[in-house]
Amino acid sequence: MDDTTHETLDAVIIGAGFSGLYMLQKLRSLGLRVHVLEAASDVGGTWWWNRYPGARCDIESFDYSYSFDADLEQTWEWSERYATQPEILAYVNHVADRFDLRRDISFDTRMLEARWNDETTTWNLTTDTGRSIDAHYCIMAVGCLSQANHPTFEGMEEFSGRTLHTGEWPHEGVDVTGLRVGVIGTGSSAIQSIPLLAEQAEQLTVFQRTPAFTLPAMNAPLDPETVADFKARYREHREATRHSNGGVLTTLAEESALAVEAAERDRRFEAAWKSGTLFGLLSSFSDLMIDPQANELAAQFVRDQIVRIVDDPVIAERLSPHSFPIGTKRLCLDTGYYATYNRPNVELVDLRTEPIDRFTATGMSVGDREIPLDVIVFATGFDAMTGALLAPRIIGRDGITLKQKWAEGPRTYLGIATSGFPNLFTITGPGSPSVLTNMLVSIEQHVEWTAACIEWLEQQGAASIEANVDAENGWADHVTEVAGFTLYPTGNSWYLGSNIEGKPRVFMPYIAGVEIFRTVCDDVAANGYRGFTIST
Ligand code: NAP
């Protein structure tokens, strides 16, 4: 598309990550005129932006990939159990080439505003490149963890060194050899990058506000026999994951952690620890995410591992989480994280006892001392699930913006639609399982449901589809209610918006899992899109 023209399309997709690319492929196959707007310079979404050292997936490669094309999964060769960011990006590029997707994508183009026109039943979109596009459908495929969180500290502008955010890592890479590096944060991004930064930097100082629970990834190269064996049963495996709870094959044990002998409990926790999977530990008993006492047993098991790995008992205790039930803030998978604190060039600063006072020209002032730094890495995470949806101005029916509508927290029907915003679809939006599952399985489910819905609307010659307020309120209450049966809402997590100052506290993901959610969505569709108003 030409930057100066006004264009009319059937559908516009925002984002060329995993969800946007598949959405493009699906809508194209329906014969629609569809185009993708992408702020980055190429495909990949989160994997285009997050290039910090050590960035890799914590869902196994075989599962963290598209399932929609049987040939694709046979053709592509993963080299490690957990793929690195460059390998995943290479895969996304391969997919874009294979399906010739780039010809319908505009890169370096950020959607600034989308305004609904009730008369023409179209969305008018404007971009930072001066484009104006009318489209019947607008699909937000902007990702759940794509709006970086940039906390501010006094004196930041005085700091003469370099500041970086893990989610916006420079593409040319950063050489920290011989430099004094500070990392703020100890979530997944920090936990992956700290071991590698420590190997390169002269001195690494980690500024920790809340210690995280992390398990060893047990990553390893994939051998040809494993790959061949897996590929032979790939279809069967995909089908099973599609109908699983978390989008990966993990079985939740039937017994309570409180009902077995200590030795049996330890044996299971140990096996889960050694399995190197994200979901294994919390699935090893039925009630770890429901019963605080059971949960504490798993938490203590991990704390015991920290004491075992970290030489200095004071540092081990500093690294041990006590302020939230294990799993209520997202678990991390790491390679050598705790052992990194045994290195002589690594220091852990506990911000609860030595808070950051300010940045200075040469480093950071914490507690009553100054720490000299050349580079400060913000591993401070994202404005999750709603940040990227609320970044552009989305103006629905009656001039109400999405920001206004969601002022008290996001409200959606099935995570995909919100009343007052007809023909707007939010892939893996708040109220869908998304971040609590293997994202790829959830993405495919939401994309396929949306494509089928659009195909149906086209067949009906419908002008618009809009979630009903009642259906939306019912869904929002249901999402909150089921989360309330678990310990999840008790952790101050980004699932709840707790990491962003002033953000309403709403438990955003749908906890019941992929299979239940799929059944609900399919049932809604089978009943003439129950809970939606279709206008002709
Ligand atoms: P995160 O989990 O939200 O961690 C952010 C860290 O920064 C936390 O330790 C937080 O402390 C700290 N922090 C934030 N603001 C701060 C401030 N003002 N002062 C001091 N500390 C501050 O973010 P993330 O590590 O980028 O991970 C986000 C999510 O992305 C993960 O949970 C995961 O879902 C996904 N992710 C996945 C992978 C993977 O697949 N391997 C890798 C990276 C990220 P508090 O806890 O006290 O708020």
Automatic annotation (TrEMBL):
Transmembrane segments: none
Pfam family membership, one: Pyr_redox_3
GO function terms (MF aspect): monooxygenase activity
Claim: Flavoprotein is one of the keywords in the record: yes
Statement: the UniProt record of this protein carries the keyword NAD: no
SUPFAM superfamilies (alphabetical): FAD/NAD(P)-binding domain (SSF51905)
InterPro entries according to UniProt: FAD-binding_Monooxygenases, FAD/NAD-bd_sf
Key words, A-Z: FAD, Flavoprotein, Monooxygenase, NADP, Oxidoreductase
Cofactor dependence: FAD
Family classification: Belongs to the FAD-binding monooxygenase family.
Protein name, as recorded: Unannotated protein
Native source organism of the sequence: freshwater metagenome
